[in-house]
Amino acid sequence: MCGIVGYTGAQQASPLLLEGLKKLEYRGYDSAGIAVVKDGKISLSKVTGRIANLSEKTDGGRLLPGCTGIGHTRWATHGAPTDTNAHPHVSNDGRFAVVHNGIIENYLELREELTEKGYRFSSETDTEVIVHLVEMYYAGDFRQAVMKASARLEGSYALGIVCADEPDRILVVREASPLILGVGVGENFFASDVTALVAYTRNAIYLEDGQFAELTPHSIQVFDCTGNPVPKKISRITWDIQAAEKGGYEHFMLKEIMEQPRAVKATMAPRLKDGEIVLDDLQISAADLKKINKIVITACGSAYYAGCAAKYAIEKLCRIPVQTELASELRYADPLIDERTLLIVLSQSGETADTIAAMRECQRRGARALAIVNVVGSTIAKGADWCLYTWAGPEIAVATTKGYTTQLTVLFLFAIFTARKLGNLDETEYARLLGELKGLPKLLQQALDMNPGLPNLAKKYHNNHSMFFIGRNTDYAVALEGALKMKEISYIHAESYAAGELKHGTIALIHEGQPVIALCCNEAITEKTMSNIVEVKARGAEVLAVAFRDNQKILSLADDMIYIPRVEQIFSPVVEIVPLQLLAYYVARENGCDIDKPKNLAKSVTVE
Ligand code: M6R
Questions:
Q1: Is the CB of 349 under 6 A from ligand 1?
Q2: If you measure from the C-alpha of residue 585 to the centroid of ligand 1, how many angstroms do you get, rounded to a whole number?
């Protein structure tokens, strides 16, 4: 949940580290720090709060000279967000500094052991044990000391470590936390995420779990956990700098909402060839598909809600039962999963700790895992049996938008592809569905353009303490995601309910002026939702309905309307969510919230 960066080369390290940290700030932003090596000494600067504070404190990095350094932006897990708990942490002899992303699970026993040996701790973090271990094992060989220290650690960690005696060298270690090396000319880098590297190099090495690397300005060597050299595989980063910047928008979230037509098209286009769906990365025969008796979709947060929305399309087309499971529950559920289960794992980052654990648990029980992931080379992408990437480009805002809609796009492709292989779709219906799917980018653009009144609706609704989102079937699935968007960025309590459930308890909460967002895009069942609208209106609710543009019936019932273009029913979630993302955005803006970095949240939840 933190971001780490490192640089070694001919330039002053601190300004580059600050730039890198700014790109990683979405991963955590309660405190930050940098450590730089020069003339046999480590200089350190740490602050509570944002990277901007660190930049101010160090005069844009200029106050910390030195050409090798490491940096960190923190999302606190162990210990409050304070200057002392901020990384880097330094050894008692001042010789080593470490930055860490992840959690050291056995830190209490290590802390006890090190305290008994006389090491003094200055923070409450789990990380500090690492730097004292390195000091304890140091006998003149930096790499050996880091290897011995790492062997004592349990948990997840991506580490960057510098040593005052070796001013040109950084050691990095990866275990269950993302870590990427940037290969430059006369300079080398590391970071938690390629967004911090693209401004400097497009050549990257994705470390595997259990690997170490030693970086100097002119070399990178990779080792396994026993110290044996491992051949380096250099990959090209395809994301460009603009993709990782705001491009004139006030917030990354708005930019990413607006990018959805393009992102969905980019995800779909390479997989539609000559009137067929081609999923090159899913090498599974029709015979193997026929053996599947259950599909389990697992994920967290919005990715989980994408699974909930796609379940209807998969079941309808493939006639295979689909079970949606929160990864944090599934991993401990002793699940009924075997080799006849197809597991679908959804994750924008590909690094969500619970999702990784759930995937591994299901694979251990015999299931084969199909990952749908945005970040190339991420842990889930590499650990799954197959991976279909969502080509959404980097998503920086903590609240996912294009991540969600591109996940749905791949799930719809998968549903049609599988249904066709299973013989459930004749030629005509197959071609019709492909045509509808191809039309989605255009419909997304219309959904973006169709509601110029959303900022005004936000002015009307932003002053509320709570909102309800109701719907049935696919509308209910979209309500789940719509409510999450609203609460995570505007801090307004937002609950989603299956509309038919209201009268089983929740309707007691409806009072004069209570906003209810009613999703009415599943026309097969809208009449039922309309009855629920009447019920809540009778109790004073203010109803904001979401419906197809030509749906006059709803117009006469609701207080306010949001429109979407008419869309094939099973694909409607991908279009329907768009105005709800915008509504949440404008409400959060009215409330003066920090939209791209909501409080207490981080983009990538790499800890349990
Ligand atoms: O990277 P992932 O898709 O695995 O992340 C899962 C959730 O943490 C994520 O969707 C989260 O709920 C977002 N903040 C929602 O906007």
A1: yes
A2: 17
